[in-house]
Amino acid sequence: MRVAVIGSGISGCAAAWELSSWAEVTVFEADNRLGGHTHTQQIRVESRNFPVDTGFIVFNHRTYPGLKAWFETLGVETAASDMSFSASLNHGALEWCGSSLSSVFAQRRNLISPRFWRMLADILRFNRQAPRDAAQFRLQSETGPSLGDYLDHGGYSPLFLNAYLLPMAGAIWSCPPEQMRAFPMTTFTQFCIFKNFRHDWHRRAALSFGGHSATLTR
Question: Is 163 within the bounds of a domain?
Answer without folding.
Answer: yes
